[in-house]
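Table S2 (continued). Query chain:
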Amino acid sequence: MSVRLRTERLVLRPFTEADAEPCAEINADPEVMRYIGDGRPRTAAQTREGVAKAVRRWEEHGWGTLAVTVASTGEFVGLAALAVPEFLPEILPAVEVGWRIGRRHWGRGYAPEAAREAIRFAFEDHGMDRLVSCIHRDNAASVRVAEKLGMTL
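Corresponding output:
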């Protein structure tokens, strides 16, 4: 996939199979996963399965989960995603923007920077006119990110 998005500090690109290992490290952290899905960390096998699914979605739709790396070093810091929130059928049809940053990179503004670029990509490059973000009400940090992005309840 030739998509490569840049911000001032970050590069966002479609997930590849090579992203499974660094993503598995993030997904294994209970603090990172606390408000995602059932709140449990994911195994390496679950992460590999999720990455393979993300790769297929890019091939099918031309958009999906973006690996987020530091532009100056190439270090994998997390993801920004455009996904159909199938786990919440009552809001469908919809596309969700989401983010997940490794804990050692928290507090640097990477989540809103990456999500803002994913939103731009969705609206400008794919003609989407509405995005949602499904955030657990107790996840104050992600609520703040959504607010920085101009999202409202």
